[in-house]
Write a structure and sequence with these properties.
CATH class: Alpha Beta
Number of strands: 11
Largest sheet: 7 strands, mixed
Organism: Emiliania huxleyi (strain CCMP1516)
Protein name: Photolyase/cryptochrome alpha/beta domain-containing protein
Helix content: 25-40%
Structural class: alpha/beta
CATH topology: Spore Coat Polysaccharide Biosynthesis Protein SpsA, Chain A
Number of domains: 1
Low-confidence stretches: none
Distance between the termini: 68 Å
Oligomer: single chain
Shape: globular
Strand content: 5-15%
Length: 330
């Protein structure tokens, strides 16, 4: 933990009850971070932790705006994607690398992390809402195993996932600093060199390095923020590199259907690996029936446990709606 001490000293002024709001930015996104920092200050946080992709010129900000940001030094060497990501995906891919690096560093420094994209704006202090969320304690089992941490405050809270993707959205995630989450982020950061951050984070949380972290998902997270309209994206030169650190393979216990090692589409440590949606599977942290329990006044009620009967009722409802629409078109 000695390496975390300089970071801890830099970020300590941002913390509220040991929790830190953090984000990552390209050099032309610094104003987005300042605007996020203003809403964090209004919500009770001293500042936000910011990891820029490259060196940024904060001298152009006035003193009050500079005080809203705890600017960390950009990674050395820079975290650059492979040439295949030059184009529309370039900014997203760089953010994935820096997001995982930042979350891992802050957790190792002992801070709880609310990691957000720079376009989000806090509407209020989110900690009271996060504080009432609990892992479900209604006898739920996942893949035949009792749910980890039932009734406890979760180590990881993601927004309610897109159920076709079966993975946590990484634009806004809550992580408590525990041994389990520190292991999770160390592995997720390493694997992100070979895959999408949301995919590998969810897979490691469900079945891998984060398997001892308690978790649930909640649409309460989204209710704590509003989304700012991003400015028009400027033309960005594409700095890339062909060789990245080797990415570890999926965990042995994964339920996602990766092709077996040695086959053409198996996980390759020195390449980018994509898994089709149909090969993703629900897990203990991303399943339909593992929404957090607990209710804060700013949050909608959590959904009831997902059952076969509920699935059939939803399917009938959709079929009925489709029939009505078809009748109306004739």
């Amino acid at each position: 933990m000695a390496a975390a001490e300089p970071l801890r000293l830099t970020v300590a002024r941002c913390a509220l009850n040991s929790a830190v709001i953090c984000t990552t930015v390209a050099t032309d996104e610094l104003q987005l971070a300042v605007d996020l920092g203003r809403t964090a200050r209004a919500a009770g946080f001293g500042c936000i932790a910011v990891l820029p992709f490259d060196a940024v010129a904060a001298d152009g900000l006035d003193a009050s705006d500079r005080g809203l940001l705890a600017l960390l030094p950009p990674p050395t060497p820079p975290l650059l994607p492979r040439p295949q990501f030059c184009g529309k995906q370039y900014l997203s891919r760089r953010r994935q690398f820096h997001r995982m690096r930042l979350w891992r560093m802050l957790l190792e420094a002992g801070f709880h992390v609310l990691g957000v994209d720079p376009m989000l704006r806090l509407d209020r202090n989110p900690l009271p809402a996060l504080g009432v969320l609990r892992v479900r304690a209604d006898g739920l089992q996942v893949a035949g195993e009792a749910y980890l941490g039932a009734g406890s405050s979760p180590d990881v809270v993601g927004g309610t996932p897109g159920f076709s993707l079966k993975q946590i959205y990484t634009y806004c995630v809550w992580l408590r600093s525990t041994p389990a989450t520190r292991l999770l982020l160390a592995q997720a950061e390493a694997r992100t060199f070979g895959g999408q951050d949301a995919q590998v984070l969810s897979e490691e949380l469900n079945w891998g390095a984060g398997a001892n972290a308690s978790c649930c998902h909640s649409n309460c997270l989204a209710k704590q923020f509003s989304v700012a309209k991003p400015p028009p994206a400027p033309a960005r030169p594409c700095a890339s590199q062909a060789e990245l650190p080797l990415a570890p393979p999926p965990p042995n216990r994964t339920r996602n259907s990766w092709p077996p090692p040695g086959t053409a589409k198996a996980w390759k440590p020195a390449a980018y690996n994509a898994l089709p949606m149909a090969a993703h599977h629900f897990g203990r942290c991303t399943g339909r029936d593992v929404a957090c329990s607990g209710l804060h006044e700013t949050c909608p009620p959590p959904p009831p446990p997902y059952t076969r009967q509920a699935a059939l009722a939803e399917s009938r409802r959709k079929r009925g709606g489709a029939k009505k629409k078809k009748v109306g078109q004739t």
